[in-house]
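Weekly sync, protein design subgroup
Attendees: M.S., D.O., the rotation student, P.L. (late)

Item 1: inverse folding check
M.S. brought a backbone from last month's batch and wanted to see whether the design step gives back something sensible before we order anything. D.O. pointed out we never logged the input encoding, so this time it goes straight into the notes. Structure tokens as presented (316 positions):
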């Protein structure tokens, strides 16, 4: 690992850690504007995380080591995912060490520890949220794998850098397989990040919340890490979507850290557009019943499989 590659890798991780709460704040602002409400401050997520880090943690008496370690494992898994997703460049040390399957495994690892920690205390809400989250993950992860496999069929590899390199150098045109995969990925991203119509990140209603139900027993630094990890997950999914469907601006081939840094403004612009689109989708959608989630994610899986079939039969 040369020094330039190491600096570029650290720069990508640092940008991910810094921009993830900002992306959440931007989406919240856009949702408020589209709903004709007064928007919260853009930097409110930073203030919330900072305030939580300054508080003293309160842990239940019956909490085991799983409950205490889960925030660090979840945050570490999301940070590793941010390191291997080619958001700024493809020729990075960590990006070459993992492929699409390993990326999905990191998301699954975080989900498992969140569910175990939620059930560790034994509260009704935590167990309810854990069961619902595992239920959604059981349906969403296969659809995500099918989307990534569609892109891997085009590039001939499951390595994310090679996928992005291939898609970035292809001629501009309409790819039916990527169109189906893009719709499926959007549906999976909404479900995986606890967004409307599958979940509402702003609700605390006992009968509807999923992700928030697993965080009720956390406080202080543990809650801060969980909230930061949730923001990183949204950032990672956004970067995966940009890398697969809008790869322009990502530095390909050997490049120094200055070239990587120069691609950051374009990444910010694409994230801003994606965040506004996400807010528009949430504003135009209604929260569905939890029992309708299998139909929603089943449709996403069918679209992802259809994308693979189109690629195999038509080669496009």
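Designed sequence read out in the meeting:
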């Amino acid at each position: 690992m040369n020094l330039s590659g190491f600096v570029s890798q650290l720069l990508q991780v640092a940008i991910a850690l810094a921009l993830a709460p900002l992306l959440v704040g931007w989406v919240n602002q856009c949702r408020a504007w589209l709903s004709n409400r007064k928007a919260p401050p853009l930097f409110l997520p930073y203030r919330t995380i900072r305030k939580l880090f300054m508080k003293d943690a309160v842990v239940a008496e019956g909490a085991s080591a799983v409950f205490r370690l889960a925030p660090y494992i979840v945050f570490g898994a999301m940070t590793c995912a941010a390191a291997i997703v080619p958001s700024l460049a493809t020729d990075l040390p960590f990006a070459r060490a993992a492929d699409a399957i390993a990326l999905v495994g990191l998301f699954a690892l975080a989900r498992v520890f969140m569910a175990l920690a939620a059930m560790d205390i034994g509260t009704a809400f935590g167990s309810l949220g854990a069961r619902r989250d595992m239920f959604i993950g059981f349906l969403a992860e296969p659809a995500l794998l099918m989307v990534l496999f569609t892109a891997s069929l085009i590039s001939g590899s499951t390595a994310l850098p090679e996928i992005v390199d291939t898609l970035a150098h292809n001629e501009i045109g309409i790819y039916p397989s990527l169109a189906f995969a893009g719709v499926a990925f959007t549906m999976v991203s909404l479900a995986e990040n606890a967004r409307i119509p599958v979940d509402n990140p702003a609700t605390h209603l006992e009968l509807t919340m999923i992700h928030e139900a697993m965080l009720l027993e956390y406080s202080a630094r543990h809650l801060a890490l969980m909230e930061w990890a949730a923001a990183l997950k949204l950032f990672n999914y956004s970067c995966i979507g940009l890398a697969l469907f809008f790869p322009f601006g990502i530095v390909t081939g050997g490049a120094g850290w200055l070239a990587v840094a120069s691609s950051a403004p374009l990444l910010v612009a694409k994230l801003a557009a994606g965040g506004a689109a996400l807010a528009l989708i949430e504003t135009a959608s209604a929260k569905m019943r939890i029992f309708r989630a299998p139909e929603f994610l089943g449709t996403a899986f069918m679209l992802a499989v259809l994308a693979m079939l189109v690629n195999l039969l038509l080669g496009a």
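Discussion: DSSP finds eleven helices and no strands in the chain. The chain has a mean pLDDT of 86.
Action: P.L. to compare against the previous round before Friday.
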